[in-house]
Amino acid sequence: MEREKIIDIVNDFLINEFEVDGDEISNDANLKKTLGLDSLDYIDMVVVIESNFGVKLGEADFKQMVTFDDFYTTIENKIAAKNA
């Protein structure tokens, strides 16, 4: 899956499912500060990612993510590893 498609899907569900202001989403924006999600929201996000991309993100994955770019890259890498 192309990176641009991943970004479009992720941004779409963040805006529609998690009510994130699309203007606040940028590659270098701080993921946790921008999203302001609680622990239950992160569980919901894992489910949405799995249903959209067929990959699972764990707690360790989220700990390594600082920016939206990190988020997209993590998903991209998980998809690539699954398809390898």
UniProtKB/TrEMBL annotation:
Start and end residues of each Carrier domain: 1-79
Name the record gives this protein: Acyl carrier protein
InterPro entries tied to this protein: ACP-like_sf, PP-bd_ACP
Domain of life of the source: Bacteria
One Pfam family linked to the record: PP-binding
Species whose genome carries this gene: Chryseobacterium carnipullorum
